[in-house]
From TrEMBL:
One of its GO terms (molecular function) is protein tyrosine phosphatase activity. Residues 234-494 form the Tyrosine-protein phosphatase domain. This is Protein tyrosine phosphatase receptor type N. It is a single-pass type I membrane protein. It comes from the Eukaryota. The chain crosses the membrane at residues 32-53, 106-128. The keyword Disulfide bond does not apply. Residues 413-485 form the Tyrosine specific protein phosphatases domain. Residues 175-202 have a biased composition (Low complexity). It comes from Scleropages formosus (Asian bonytongue).
């Protein structure tokens, strides 16, 4: 709590009020870092007030004794003597030198008090400005500005060390250093994170929880390690997945002329049977299409996820309509707005304050940088037609490049735990999107679905079959072999963490 400015001005002595009021009027009060500085200033002023009034009272008592001795006028013991013609001392009163000394002491105390307070104000404002400048630099490096251009994103990539790790691009070779030594990753000794910006402190805050027994955990872990060590087996499994054809596989609605412009990438569109259908009567274009697919885990009546592309500038209102109609409370964003100078997703939320998208008013309530790998935003969503309101949370993962995979699984697993902690107890689908809604989106959904099944006590886990189940509902989910191998590594590491947390 920061004391209001009028209260400070009333409590401060008159010598410091004009300067303080002018300084705090010129400098924005919001940049003062904490209320402790203001409270300390208040105490300091009160202390000097006490000294000043004690000195005045002492002087008043002395002068009253002088008046009683010299039969002069009576002075108040609490107030300084009024301006009266100076009279010579007749030897019975206080000497003139003592009066001059008291006045000099009063002036010196006042000057010292004002100087101390002025110095503290200068130091506090300097610290506040430095902190404000540091926060702006940090936000710029994370690409949180109005548009987050390519230069900003390159600075963030350099700071997070991704340029030095040599991540594989597109269909390039796998960086085997990340997954070859599986046994060392799962050893009991503490391992340094490959990234200089790992979220190990947050990792420890969210312990792994599961109903899995020890024997099942060891069996699943051995299965994962065998896949990761046996590269031929992993390659054969991936080739089998690539040749898999979903049925039915019609995408005629998405490829129609009226809907073609609503797709970010025409190669990655939803199936007709699993696409999300909007209410056409409230849609600004009077259509029901959006490039999004429902992903069912086990109950067809209750989709677990909605996989969608990053909104385009002209589909932002469609995105918020889908959020509203699906009852979504959690959004998982797996891409930066701009990567390597190429726009991956349009900003679909206000940079600050509120914005209106058709009939949906979106208010940015808070934006919290949890760590260098992800941040969390809170929104207040209002339907201006019905005046209904809702709150929802967006989890934005920053450490997954468009071409490649993260340098470590730990930040993503910690990110997933934070998402699930927020989502716990809800029955609405989680909206997951990257740029095209297939590669990073599919990998995250695959990891989350497998780990959720394990947490429920399922004893048989087939990741390849789970991926086929997901691809039955949206084409192209998990686009590269590197992403599939990364999913296996993430599941294995989480199983290892669960086993360590179980009582032996």
């Amino acid at each position: 709590y920061t004391p209001p400015l009028p209260l400070l001005c009333v409590c401060l002595p008159s010598q410091g009020v004009p300067a303080l009021y002018l300084l705090m009027d010129v400098v924005d009060v919001d940049v003062i870092p904490s209320s402790s500085a203001c409270f300390f200033l208040l105490l300091l002023y009160l202390y000097f007030n006490t000294l000043l009034f004690s000195d005045m009272r002492l002087k008043g008592i002395i002068m009253s004794r002088v008046s009683q001795t010299s039969d002069g006028p009576f002075f108040s013991p609490y107030l300084p003597p009024p301006c009266v013609p100076r009279q010579r001392s007749d030897g019975r009163g206080l000497p003139q030198a003592t009066r001059v000394q008291d006045s000099s002491r009063l002036v010196m105390l006042t000057l010292v008090g004002v100087a101390c307070v002025g110095g503290i104000l200068v130091v506090s404002l300097t610290i506040a400005c430095l902190r404000h400048h540091a926060r702006q630099l940090a936000a710029g490096k994370l690409g949180l500005g109005p548009e987050g251009g390519s230069d900003t994103h390159f600075e963030y990539q350099s700071s997070s060390g991704r340029q030095d790790t040599g991540t594989a691009a597109g269909g390039g070779g796998t960086d085997t250093s990340r997954v070859s030594s599986v046994s060392s990753q799962f050893s009991d000794a503490p391992q340094p994170s490959p990234s200089s910006h790992s979220s190990t402190p947050s990792w420890c805050e969210e312990p792994a929880q599961s109903n899995m027994d020890i024997s099942t955990g060891h069996m699943i872990l051995a299965y994962m390690e065998d896949h990761l060590k046996n590269k031929d087996r992993l390659l054969r499994e991936w080739e089998a997945l690539c040749s898999y054809q979903a049925e039915p596989s019609s995408v005629s609605v998405a490829q129609s002329d009226v809907n073609h412009k609503k797709n970010r990438n025409p190669e990655f569109v939803p199936y007709d049977h699993s696409r999300v259908k909007l209410k056409a009567e409230v849609n600004p274009s009077r259509g029901d299409y959006i490039n999004a697919s429902t992903i069912i885990e086990h109950d067809p009546r209750m989709p677990a996820y909605i996989a969608t592309q990053g909104p385009l500038s002209h589909t932002i209102s469609d995105f918020w309509q889908m959020v509203w109609e699906s009852g979504c409370t959690v959004i998982v964003m797996m891409t930066a707005l701009v990567e390597d100078g190429e726009k991956q997703c349009d900003r679909y939320w206000p940079d600050e304050g509120s914005s209106l998208y058709h009939i949906y008013e979106v208010n940015l309530v808070s934006e919290h940088i949890w760590c260098n790998d992800f941040l969390v935003r809170s929104f207040y969503l209002k339907n201006v037609q019905t005046q209904e309101t809702r709150t929802l949370t967006q989890f934005h993962f920053l450490s997954w490049p468009a071409q490649g995979i993260p340098t470590s699984t730990r930040p993503l697993l910690d990110f997933r735990r934070k998402v699930n902690k927020c989502y716990r107890g809800r029955s609405c689908p989680i909206i997951v999107h990257c740029s095209d809604g297939t590669g990073r989106t599919g990998t995250y959904i695959l990891i989350d679905m497998v780990l959720n099944r394990m947490a429920k006590g399922v004893k048989e886990i087939d990741i390849a079959a789970t991926l086929e189940h997901i691809r039955d509902q949206r084409p192209g989910m998990v686009r590269t072999k590197d992403q599939f191998e990364f999913a296996l590594t993430a599941v294995a590491e989480e199983v290892n963490a669960i086993l360590k947390a179980l009582p032996q």
